[in-house]
Amino acid sequence: MAKEASATMTLETVRDSLSAQEDTIIYSLIDRVNYPLNSKTYDQSASLIPGFAGSLVEYVVKETEAVHAKCGRYESPTEHPFFPENIPASVVPVHEYPKILHPVASSININKRIWDIYFNKLLPLIAAPGDDGNYASTAASDLKCLQALSRRIHYGKFVAEIKFTDSPQDYEPLVRVQFQDSDALMNLLTFKKVEEMVKRRVEKKAAVFGQRVGLDDSKPDQKPKIDPAIVSRLYDEWVMPLTKLVEVEYLLRRLD
Ligand SMILES: O=C(O)C(=O)C[C@]1(C(=O)O)C=C[C@@H](O)C=C1
Question: Which residues does the UniProt record annotate as the domain Chorismate mutase (predicted)?
């Protein structure tokens, strides 16, 4: 581990980063709800792209990731592609990222689950029914949401690393190969009070960021652009559990 980098990263600074990433996630979701569901974007059989067997959103994500990969995006330990099998090598000079994580970190990528939850659980909750034909813009907006969620959830690797180095005496016995205990690890890294605070904070942010701002103060309050309760539920049911899953996966291999 690079000393200078680990010395500046603490549980507090990592939690600050998670809080800042909430803003990006909520703004991306607010952008997505500007479009109706536009289900053709996700239709495997719509054949919108000649010669490509898959949905429009898959095409946009794969092609965008390929360009970003060439420009070095996935060299960063905070970035994870949704189609890793499709990723070309970077052509730009290598940037030396501080080596904070154990090398096993690069083998952990749960984007397939994030993809599934985003399209099958979250999107139907936030997007209004309908079709305005803006499929490419819709896919671009989905990609922004997916990337923001993926970055936040995989940031669990950093949270886990800090927790491990802060208290090796607590973590090491549960991580040793012969005693690996994922349930005990999950209990140890869980802070229920912090989770309650995060849920309340994202709900408040969604209410503030999603306000409809007009000049006519006589108009009654309108509904926020995105339902704050759904954002809180997103964190409760998916974002935090998946972050913890990444933490456990990382810790189980921390002593490899
Ligand atoms: O802040 C932590 O300690 C984390 O591990 C992050 C996080 C989260 O996903 O927000 C996950 C688990 C904890 O129970 C609390 C919060």
Answer: 135-247
